[in-house]
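Help needed: design a sequence for this.
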């Protein structure tokens, strides 16, 4: 017997605006990140973290980019809150909220250079690392996607939502595997490359959710 879909409540005007905010914030994040690759080529993208762009002459752009990522996360959480009906979905929202807090912390505190040994980290660098470790957007994406797919209006997006969230999960696992146990990074460690895949996978899911939510909001007018 086919599983019965749950009818979702129409999105409010406020929710629709937050959906648009998530799309705009996500797109601007990607634009800033791409610009930093061109403006600061001294940071090899294969093994240097994106956080290190905050150490260069255009560091303010990386701070702004992290802020925009947090805005996208918070906006998506507010947008889809009325459509969450399961414990799994609520857990996903909590994780997404914690992730946003982590990104805000990472935006405020500047990272240490990747060449710094764990014993020589600064307070700012330690706080940045704590913020980064709080970001579990891929896990939130998967849990939220599983919850949204139960609703009639999100059913057409089931394949896209689940595929994008699984890609984010895989990217996160591969990134974690790249982290050396001794904390010593070098050109042979491709953590920077896979870290970029991870952040782009996160942004892709946020924008996908935002776009569909915006369409739902427009159809209710």
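Sure. Designed sequence:
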């Amino acid at each position: 017997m086919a599983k019965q879909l749950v009818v979702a409540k129409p999105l409010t005007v406020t929710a629709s605006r937050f959906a648009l905010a998530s799309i705009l914030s996500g797109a601007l994040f990607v634009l800033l990140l791409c610009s930093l690759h061109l403006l600061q080529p001294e940071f090899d993208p294969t093994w240097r973290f994106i956080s290190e762009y905050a150490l260069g002459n255009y560091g303010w752009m990386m701070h702004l980019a992290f802020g925009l990522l947090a805005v996208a996360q918070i906006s998506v959480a507010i947008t889809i809150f009325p459509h969450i009906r399961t414990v799994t979905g609520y857990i996903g929202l909590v994780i997404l909220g914690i992730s946003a807090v982590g990104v805000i912390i990472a935006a405020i505190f500047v990272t240490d250079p990747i060449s710094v040994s764990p014993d020589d980290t600064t307070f700012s660098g330690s706080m940045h690392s704590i913020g980064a470790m709080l970001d579990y957007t891929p896990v939130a994406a998967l849990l939220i996607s599983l919850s949204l797919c139960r609703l009639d209006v999100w059913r057409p997006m089931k394949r896209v939502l689940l595929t994008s969230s699984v890609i984010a999960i895989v990217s996160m696992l591969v990134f974690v595997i790249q982290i050396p146990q001794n904390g010593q990074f070098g050109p042979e460690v491709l953590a920077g490359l896979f870290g970029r895949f991870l952040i782009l996978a996160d942004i892709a899911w946020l924008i996908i959710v935002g776009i569909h939510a915006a369409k739902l909001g427009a159809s209710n007018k």
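The chain is about 65% helix and 0% strand.
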